[in-house]
Every structure is written in structure tokens, then in C-alpha cells.
Please model this.
Amino acid sequence: MNIIHISAECYPAAKAGGLGDVVGALPKYLNRAGHKATVILPNYKTEWLKKADSDFIYEGKAPFGADIVPFTVHRVKKSVLGFELYLVDIPGRFDRAGVYTDPWSGHAYWDEMERFFTFQIAALEWLHSLDAPPDVIHCHDHHTGLIPFMMKECFRFEKFRDIPSVLTIHNGEYQGKYSSENYSYLPAFNLERVGMLDWDGAMNCLAAGIKSAWRVTTVSEGYMEELLHYCHGLELLLQQEEQKTIGIVNGIDVDVWDPEKDSYLPKNYTVKTIKSGKKANKKELCKIFNLNEKRPLFSFIGRLVLEKGADLIPELIERCHEEGVEASFLVLGTGDPSLHTLFKKMESEYVGYFDSRLEYNEGLAHQIYAGSDYLMMPSRVEPCGLNQFYAMRYGTIPVVRKIGGLADTVIDLDEKEGYGLVFEEFATEPFLEVIKRGVELYDKKELFSRCRENVMKLDFSWSSSTDKYIHLYKSIQPKKPVS
Ligand code: GLC
Model:
């Protein structure tokens, strides 16, 4: 099959979160399974893309309301990432370093609507010019939610009417809502269908994608269930469309995330050398952050936002410190400016007990997975979560809240065949209790070693989920007439 992914992120070219990891891995595994999967991405000015070697492929014009937007398409060869990457270059819109936000100010770009509308129209314009139509167009999140709509409804894209489309919701919190009159920026369509773009009195790109795509997937079964009950106002729509929804859990790219070969690590290791490997990595990490390597190290990696429950961490640390819990804490990430201020203040209050690095740092993230004993994920919402998989691959035990994909993928140690630490209610007290369980476990050296080995042996690679996607793509292929 010929599968086209259209996305705002794709690791390592452009990544802001887990969406980038998924779009940077799934197409590679689809190719390995014998299909042709490619990715279409905006040509941002990220460090990776500035250096990327690409060939010019196409020059075109995208209609955008009364304007005509010139664009070009460039290709990064398959040998680089394991799939062909097509870059849509729209001067003035994407020639910036950030994906969604300006890295210098931390603010979201003001022209999100113009950026992603023109990207989607340009991507379809280019695909339209190709002779062979794809078998499936797979879109991701609201930034590409208008594609299934345009494929079905826009006159100039009539050719795509019978091509199946899939929309994956990686995060229902963000929906791409704009005022209703913005529909006029899209290429002409039958205005009787304008309601397909609308939800609750606004143009809603995620809703338009849910209504128009042939299938809607989310990144875990648990999250799919949750969305039917709460999705920031879209729950009724999802209930109506339930028949076409399916939850498929993400996997991880085990080539990129491999403690045996990871070049970011001071010392590589396997499950056989886990003891010395983790010890050496922890030693280096504790040296950088001035932490006591004898104590269990609990880390948090990710965006410092409410969704990830990052606001629970300051109080947790304060309580642990007050109660004399013998542990160390480390935070890596960026996000809410008020949390930045708080963590900065805590760095000086809890020297030797807590430290943070408030930046996006891929290499340091790898080192933290390798050097920590536990990874904390106290998320309020978690569609799938990938960090728990990365942690386990590096022999680090996940400490998670029972929600969404975390509930599906981490079983508490007290349960049959359990391997992680899980708490339920979003509150400091249960979080604190589970941390204390982690400290106790750490002191039972034998048991702790066994637990680490167990998590490292688990398989969270893409193999089984890739098969599920292939099955899904096949199930929606139009039946060919029997000749
Ligand atoms: C989003 C979600 C995360 C998920 C990722 C990839 O970042 O918040 O839970 O793993 O997308 O699907």
C-alpha cells in the first residue's frame, strides 16, 4: 500500500512532543513491513532541517481565500530516515525555528491559522498533481484535520473523494478553533456542507477531521474510552462517530531508543549489564546535578503543563523533604512560565535534593532515562504517553497516574505480572504514597534489581501496533470491481 502521513511534526526533523516521535517512527516500520509510507511536513527552520540534504521536487501555488500562496516541495531521501520525507516550503510562514511557539519568547506564533491552513492546502495541491493516487492519507491532530474535509468536499480535490482518510487524535486538548468565517480561506466547496467544519458555533479543525475522516484513531484504547466521555466539548461528536473510532497504542522506535547503542549515554548497557550500566549513568547524572547517588532518583521529563501534571511536583517535593523521604528529584522540560519560576526558586531551596533543567534537551533526556531509578508521570490527561516506554527500555521503573494510555500500559507491582508503580487520584497525597513505595522498593536491593530487569525486558516496539494500522488501512480500501 501507498500510505501518506501528513503532520506538523516528525522526529528528528521537527519535534515538539510525542506526535513527532510517532510520525518519525510509524512510517519507518510500515516501510519495513513492505509498504510505502511517506511523510509530508512543513519546512521549518529547525537545526535538523537547515542541514538536511533535500532535492527540489515541485513548485506550485495554493489558493488561500482571495490570495495565491506560492510554495515548493522538497524531498529527503528514504535512506536518511527509513521513509521519504517531503517538505512543503511556504516562505514567510514556516521559515522559523519553532514548530508552534517562538523558542525565544515562548509564545505561540500569531498566525497559526494561516500557517496550517496553507500547509494543508499546499500538501493536497501537490498530491493532486501526482499521477498515482495514494491508498490512504493519514492525518495527525488538528493541524491536519481539514485534509479529510477538503478531500471529500472541495471541488478542486474531487480526485480524492474515494481515497480513504484516517485521522489520529494524539491530543484532544488542542482542537484548532477559529471563528466561523474562516471557512472562506479554503478552496471552494458546496456551502451546504459548511456545517462539517463547525462545532459549537466555531470552525473546529479537529471536529471537521472527526466528521470527515473514514476512520478516527487515538493512541490508546483507554484514551478512546475517555474521549467518549470528555473531550473538551467534542464528546458528543465522538459518541456519534463512535463506529469509526479505534484505539491503537503507540510503540517506540527501538533503534533510536536503545541503551546498548545510544550515543548520548556516558555508558552503554544491556539487560545483562544493567547493574553496572545504570550505576555509571546515574553517577554521571548525579555529578551534573549535584545529587546524592546513593538515594533513589525520581525524574520528570516533559512539558511543564497542567496536562502532564507538572504542577503536582513542587508540592510533592516539598512534602517529601518535610517528611525526610530519602530520595532525589530531577525535572527536565519547558512550559508554564510560573512553573519555571517555581522550579528555579526550589533549586536554591533544596540544594542536593532537587534540581532542574528548564529546557528542551533530547540528549539530556536520554541520559536521564538511563541514570534515573524512577520516572514520574503524574498526568491529568495522557493519550498514550511514550516516556513510560522509554524509561522501561532503559531499565527505569515508571511511577504513573492511572489514566489514558498510562493505565493501559503500566501495571502496578502489587498486581499480577505488575512492573510499575501506579496511583489513581490526582492529588499530592496518593502521589507521595507511591513515591514512598518506590523508596522502600529501592532499599530491597534484590527485588529492586529484578524489577528493573523485568521492565527492561518488556517489548513496547512498534511491531504489533504497525500490524494494527495495516489492518485498519486494508479494511477501508474501496472494493475493486471484479473483472
Ligand atoms: C501526545 C500525547 C501523548 C502521546 C503522543 C503521541 O503528545 O500527549 O500521550 O503519546 O501525543 O501519540
About this structure: The chain has two domains: 2-252+463-475, 274-457. The chain has 17 helices and 18 strands.
